[in-house]
Write a structure and sequence with these properties.
five-stranded mixed beta sheet; DNA-binding; 7 helices; alpha+beta; single chain
Length: 300
DNA sequence: AACACCGCCTGAGCGC
DNA sequence: TGCGCTCAGGCGGTGT
């Protein structure tokens, strides 16, 4: 499932392949994946909103969302058109040079043909993802303003004040993209284990100093995951079609019932914040000082 | 206003 | 081998 590290990998791998390329045409194979507010006549006018004829100038990310800006190179970013891509759970955005034996997958919903002959394909079997069109990048900024800070750039005081304003548990609060943008089920579980924080702890009762540790750990966890190419569980791949290796470093996610890598006790599982949650009852306790960075480092 | 919960969607994995 | 069931989950919408 693409969370922040996976989306950042997609962005980084697509950068050299897309910047400066002109979009020659766009194939819309499944219109429902596109959310487009503007007028549309006979299904034809979707193409301009999908950047047809424009030059891709930059790729941006906020949390799990990826934006592609395009226009004429003289245009200010805020005036350029933009798309926001959500990969949902099973989405991918892959750039490739077409080959003779290439078959179009039934879940290839959108295909952009670029001026160097390459193709950018949005594929999403489950269709939890999608593409949103914007008349300007300024509108993308507006949309992103409703989200919390990007997790890679999170500031402890901001996170602290957001957490203080909710009575929910930590797990639910950290999954909420308006609190902090970019964390999903995998990384929240990994994060709480590393910090020795119980997922059911009330978000508003976490000491500011502990939130500061949490904030530091968020950044180091995500940076580590990005460096290892993200987590590939089922079908996540980056913009080059390659999987990641961070799943080998998961300490709790997907390890329910297996021994805790820190204390050896079998890891517990429960539905918390509406999500399957894996944690160690001994290492992630309600009371006492959380052990920031607990059990990082060595594996097995 | 804050928060819980449903429904979307398909493939993997399982038991029989 | 193959069927049908359950589960996975980000996020917007609806209900409490």
């Amino acid at each position: 499932m693409p969370e922040l590290p996976e989306v950042e990998r997609v962005r980084l791998t697509l950068l050299p392949r897309l910047i400066g390329r002109r979009v020659m045409s766009v194939q819309v194979r499944r219109e429902e994946v596109v959310t487009h507010d503007g007028p549309r006549v006979a299904g034809r006018s979707l193409q301009p909103a999908l950047l047809q004829g424009l030059i891709i100038t930059s790729l941006h990310r906020h949390g799990k969302q990826l934006a592609i800006a395009a226009g004429e190179s003289s245009q200010a970013l805020d005036d350029q058109r933009a798309l926001v891509v959500h990969l949902g759970m099973t989405g991918s955005l892959i750039s490739a040079q077409p080959r003779n034996d290439d078959a179009i997958d039934k879940h290839d919903h959108l295909i952009w043909l670029l001026d160097d002959g390459s193709r950018l394909t949005f594929n999403d079997p489950r269709r939890f993802g999608g593409v949103w069109t914007f008349n300007s990048f300024a509108e993308v900024r507006q949309r992103w303003a409703a989200l919390g800070e990007d997790a890679l750039a999170a500031s402890a005081p901001t996170l602290n004040s957001k957490l203080k304003r909710t009575r929910r548990n930590l797990k639910a609060a950290l999954l909420d993209q308006s609190v902090i943008a970019g964390l999903g089920n995998i990384y929240v579980d990994e994060l709480l284990f590393r910090c020795g924080l119980h997922p059911k702890r009330r978000a508003d009762r976490i000491d500011a100093a502990v939130v500061a540790c949490l904030c530091d750990e968020i950044k180091s966890l995500l940076a580590e995951a990005i460096a290892r190419g993200g987590s590939t569980l089922r079908n996540y791949v980056d913009g080059d079609g390659h999987g990641g290796a961070f799943q080998e470093r998961h300490q709790v996610y997907g390890r329910a019932g297996l021994p805790c890598l820190r204390c050896g006790q079998p890891l517990a599982t429960a539905a918390i914040g509406g999500r399957t949650t894996v944690y160690c009852k001994r290492c992630q306790c309600y009371r006492g000082e959380p052990r920031a960075r607990a059990a990082t480092g060595k594996q097995q």
